[in-house]
Amino acid sequence: MPALYFRFRGSFRRPLPGLGLGVLLTMAAAAAPAATGVALLDDPAVACAHPLPDFSYAGYGFGLAPLPRPAGRLIDVRDYGAKADDEIDDSKALLKAFAAAHAAAGPVIVQLPPGRLILSEVLRIERGDFVLRGHGPGRGGSELYIPRPLRLVDRGHDLDELRAYLDKYDKRQVEPERNIDLRFSEYSWSGGFVWIQKPGTRPAAYLPEHDPPSAASRLAWVRSGQRGQRQLRVDSTRQLAVGAVVQLRWFNRDGKNGALLKALYGDTELEIGSHHWTFPDRPLVRQSTRIVAIDGDTVTVADPLLHDAGGALRADLGAWEHLREVGIEDLAIAFPAGTSFGHHLEQGYNAIYLTSVFDGWVRDVRIANSDSGILTGNSASVTIADVTTEGERAAHYAVHIGNVHNVLVSDLRVLNPVVHPLSINTQASKSVFLRAQVFGEPAIDQHAGANHQNLFDQLSLHVRARRDDKGAWYPLWNGSGAGYWEPGHGRFNTHWNLRVQVEAGATAEETVRLVGGAEGPDARVVGVAGNRRFQVDYFPRPYLEGVNTTLAVPSLYQYQLQRRREGAVDANACPPAGARSASR
Fold first, then answer.
1. Is the four-CA dihedral 192, 193, 195, 200 of positive or negative sign?
2. Is the pLDDT of residue 306 over 60?
3. Strand, coil or helix: what is 551?
4. ω into 540 cis (within 30 of 0)
5. Helices (runs of H) and strands (runs of E) counted in the chain
6. DSSP state for residue 132 in the 8-state scheme
7. Is the torsion defined by CA of 341, 343, 347, 348 positive or negative?
8. Cα 291 from chain centre
């Protein structure tokens, strides 16, 4: 029986009409696995020519640990004056309870009562070992009702850099047909009423004058390391310790032809935007991970390296300020029904802003009438599970995954109209949308910005087909992003077992074209099926298998995770990446 392979390869964008063994490499258990019927998993030649990243490290505890139900000091907001369902604003009481939680020693749980609490202030979580918990997101559970947007409430300074950036570069939404010519809102992709951020950190970098020198946080230079392996050699271990969470950082200091751009995009013919070389002292790729062993000058980290490191692929290990064990669970966040002011003009009806978190989670949360449900940044090893977004307001994001590593979003339900319901955004890596259900106008948003090695897995997408002179079609891959961050994604973004339900616009006898715009190189599209026959039009051409086929492996993430649990090991069957040319 053939071994299983997870490795790597190279391709191009046009307008639209944990602690398991390192993988990303050939994997084989002591007993050979049964054939799956998927050539990309079963056939060694196909697997080596079209390698797959190992996505199973996404989520809390590098994918292996269950989400905790932590104990700790219970801080009941009713003890600070909050009273549900009395139509009186509870903001002062909630702020007092949060202040008490921040002052307390050890783990804390801020408990919300059943019923509706009214909030008109930002609730900030600025320490670790902190859980905000309700009595459930449904009827009879706990709801934070927020009548006013951040535009009228936020008095903090954490977005001042973003505001200055928007002003300096005159970033505007211009729609002449709607008489719109307005500066972007800072709340379009940032901020939330539950705002998680370690003081002094930046969710994202905008202005170079705010960039600290990379040397100030450097712990060691990386001398060598191989993509897909977990060991690397460093110039010094003096500032390193087992158990420390650090950032492995890759820099492009060689301009348009840098080796890191080759690693990110292969031999693509797509144009690569200028932000990839404009800031040479700002990491272009960041992998937040944990040191699990040190032996001489060899350091072992918890998850496989995204890229080779050392030599032309200049990389270091840097200190990373973050919060650990932060959770939001069992509650609802609701805003008043209403219309949206427009794309990029959102006023800030944003529920959760999750930044600078390692080993954190959001689970069992319902969000109604938001501009954005959950926005992320500068985080890693986070699980977002069983979240529902609903309501009438046209939202910008349901769940936004940006500037993060190893984030797992499982069992998301998107019931509201959203511009970007499933968004992999700037500098996201090894992150996964698993078993999402999207209604209305589903779109897979690969939002440029050097995002790469991400997975859309076992999605259920309910669409209304459109028509042109060629017949029925739907823009399933409908990304966005600024030109200076193109292309839409880097190598090895993967789309696995997409279930598309056409609810209108095409007869049962028609073939529906599922169209992508200018996406990115070396995508994998494996398994597309539903209640119609489909044709995939993805550009540049991806590795394509299993169209109009029901896969025997419903979830790639779960499959790879199970293989890790079984102790799959590297069989070294594929030659080194540089020993063969990338097929196109």
1. positive
2. yes
3. coil
4. yes
5. 6, 39
6. E
7. positive
8. 22
Task: Please give the DSSP secondary-structure letter assigned to residue 435.
Answer: S
Per-residue pLDDT tens for 316-367? 999 999 999 999 999 999 999 998 889 999 999 999 999 999 999 999 999 9
Altogether, the residues listed in the chain come to a count of: 584
Here the tokens at position 180 are 């719109």
- Per-residue model confidence (pLDDT) at position 576: 55
Can you tell me the distance from the alpha carbon of 207 to that of 211, in angstroms, rounded to the nearest whole number?
7
Confidence of residue 205 (pLDDT cuts 50, 70, 90): very high
| pLDDT value of residue 146 | 98
What single-letter amino acid sits at 366?
R
CB neighbour list of residue 133: distance below 8 Å, 6 or more residues apart: 109, 110, 111, 112, 327, 329, 330, 331
The answer to whether the beta carbons of residues 59 and 382 sit under 8 Å apart is yes
CA-CA distance, 434 to 221, in Å (whole number)? 35
Q: Which CATH architecture has domain 83-201+323-553?
A: 3 Solenoid (2.160)
Dist. CA 334–CA 476, nearest whole Å = 29
pLDDT of 568 reads 76
**DSSP readout, 495-542?**
EEEEEEEEEESS-TTSEEEEEEEE--TT-EEEEEEESSEEEEEEES--
Residue of 118, 89, 84 whose CA lies nearest to 334: 118
Average pLDDT over residues 382-408: 97
Q: Say whether 96 sits in a helix, a strand or coil.
A: helix
**Domain ranges for the chain:** 83-201+323-553, 208-319
Residues 6+ away with beta carbon under 8 Å from 234? 220, 221, 222, 223, 240, 297, 299, 317
- Report percent pLDDT > 90 for the chain: 89
pLDDT, residue 164, reads 97
| Contacts with 436 (C-beta within 8 Å, 6 or more apart), sequence order | 409, 411, 412, 413, 414, 421, 422, 459, 460
Asked if residue 403 lies in contact with residue 377, where contact means CB atoms within 8 angstroms, the answer is yes
| pLDDT surpasses 50 at 17 | no
pLDDT at 30: 36
Contacts of 379 (CB under 8 A, 6+ apart): 288, 322, 354, 355, 356, 357, 358, 360, 403, 404, 405, 407
What does the block give as tokens for 349?
């009806």
| Residue 214 near residue 318 (C-beta atoms within 8 A) | yes
Q: Distance between CA atoms of 497 and 491, rounded to whole angstroms?
A: 19
Burial 382-402 (b: 16+ CB within 10 A, else e): bbbbbbbbbbebbbbbbbbbb
**pLDDT tens digits, residue range 131-148?**
999 999 999 999 999 999
Residue 458 DSSP label? S
Q: For 254-275, what is the mean pLDDT?
A: 96
- Residue with the two structure tokens 């650990």: 324
What's the rounded mean pLDDT across residues 222-243?
98
Rounded Cα distance between 4 and 1, Å, is 9
d(CA 472, CA 454): 29
Give the closest residue to 244 by CA, choosing from 220, 210, 227, 270: 220
Q: Is the pLDDT of residue 21 over 60?
A: no
> Is the pTM above the cut of 0.85?
yes
